[in-house]
Queue: 2 jobs
Job 1
Amino acid sequence: MAKINSCFQDLKREYIFPIIERKTDELKQNHPNASIINLGIGDIALPLASSIAKAICQGVLEMQEKTSMKGYGPSDGYQFLKTAIKENEYKHLNIGADEIFISDGANTDTASIQELFCQSSIVAITDPTYPVYFDSNIIAGRLKNILFLPCTKESRFVPLPPKEKCDLVYLCTPNNPTGVALNKEELKAWVDYAKAHDAILLVDNAYAAFITSSDVPSSIYEIPGATDVAIEFKSFSKSAGFTGLRCAYAVVPKGVFAYFEDKKISIHSLWKKRQSIKSNGVSYPMQKGAEAVYTKEGQKETKSQVVSYLEQGQILLHGLKTLGHTCYGGTDSPYIWWQIPKGLTSWQFFDILLEKCHIISIPGSGFGKSGEGFLRLSTFTTKDKAEEALKRIASLNL
Ligand code: PLP
């Protein structure tokens, strides 16, 4: 008799997206002409940059020719893309192209990295959190090994190193859902913690392209010593409109080690092994598209998209503040963390926005206990929609 991995039974978290979909469908049925503004799911709102589209098409055409056809590529990515990433993202840092592993998404990478570590590892996860870190560890049987790091208003939503010893620490900066990014000093405290406790930092930096604050590093490796203790995850999804294309990368430095008994094992070698077993890589045209992000035209086009999302963030942020609301984030990320009026749960406030303003948001409680009392707004939208959303919110007279 086939038996399931019983850890799936431990996934008790409320699945918010099906509930949001059901509520949105109900609204559409009751108000077929409603013009719904989606500030919920963090998906891109602008079309693919033409330089990237051209490079992908060119990649497909190459595959049509006998002399340049392609079959399976390397499981950890083509050298041309690794070199482009090294040259453009890590030129000034001590990271080699062979420490970069191309993948189909930061989601896949951040969910899979825990497979390298012992089941009894103690794992620190922020609360609220991007749910993938928690769920992937639950499925791996670590229900009792999670240490939550509360991120509250009092600590600027920044997770602080705990007194307890942890083995793995997930950090997401700039953060989804709070929109807040860790500065140099805050990241240094984590590197020091990792060194002191032989821990490994798993740093999800999927929103690096949105950083505007001068004291926020665009890579953990700007912190001295981080190449010994940190793995970084980046993605082309939000920085270059790849959510529907799929291309990302993990940086696993050769200086990161964990233990088997008292023997030091290279995490870089283990990840390479894991990837070669579980992945046949990302398609050639997608990697050509990702390479094109670093061309002059690609940079111009993708940067202007990021600037546009940040501008919509500023419109929403300033508009909400002018209406007397308290909001965080939005400056170094495409998310606004909106403190909801007292006396309402985040689901109740979600319902008010949906039913009265026809605006989709995400209730903070969907990201963890400490998310209650907040709502996440995505700034992946257009100027007219951001302005229209504000008008509707203003009419609520909250
Ligand atoms: N990490 C964070 C923090 C995210 O918010 C997301 C997507 O929303 C991802 C990773 C997933 O990125 P990708 O599209 O590269 O899988």
Job 2
Amino acid sequence: MSITDFVSANQVTPQLADLLIQRAEAFKGGATPNLPLPMYAANLFFEPSTRTHTSFEMAERKLGMTVLPFDPRQSSVTKGETLADTLRTLAAIGVQVAVIRHPVNAYYQSLLAEHLPLHIVNAGDGAGQHPSQMMLDLMTIHEEFGHFKGLKVGIVGDLSHSRVAKSDMQMLHDLGAELTFSGPKAWYTKEFEKYGPYEPMADIVPKVDVLMLLRVQFERLSEAEKAEFSEETYHERFGLSDQLYPKLKKSAIIMHPAPVNRGIELADDLVLCPQSRIFQQMHNGVFMRMAMLEQVMMPQATEGSRVHAFTH
Ligand code: CP
């Protein structure tokens, strides 16, 4: 079965992940897209975004698609039109794929249940899933190590609010990586336990191949959490500081989905250090999103894909 809507890590088998990485690497190497054109896309971002929004738009343009501008603040959503009716409207006008970021967890489930006449790609739902970030993270790790099995990956930071952590842990676990988590203990909730143990940051740093730091999502913290939060204390206990950095293996890489809170998740001067792959992740994101859009629009291009049916 093919993916015709790309919404969650639950849909991606290791085989499909491998095929998408191969296709994204081919695009990075200059492979020509072969989507039948014209094709029309709209990107509906109901939460702020720099990377995901512009990266999807760049991917759509590189695939030769025409991108219709959509600004939720200027749309009839402000008059009470539902998201489903907005998508029906776009489909009626000729849009074939909608890339959506939305603050509501799993907003896409009700849309999929309505069998709307266009493809949906999830660009991040609340604290739920972020499948395109997951896929570009996999590509970046694969580019570095060539495999996932046995790789030690530390995921550190604002776990409970992070859709990146949730998508990435599922897929990395399925691909055979060994996961460990750190960050404020209260954010290591039950759902993480089956994917790996919690350990202090100082214990994780010397042993990992991949150190994946997560942004503290201040916009999702409660007033009480914000009042209690100290940037200095967080950086000291859970950040990659200048003191901790030399303890990383020389072969290890630092990842962060960004935007980065400099001086909190990692020291200011480490954002661009030799072991950082943060901007490489963003660069790879364009090619991975091309592969994902191609998979959705023309699944036969990703030959031999085998995916789980999405159940809702
Ligand atoms: N990583 C990520 O999703 O960044 P944006 O919020 O800028 O899209």
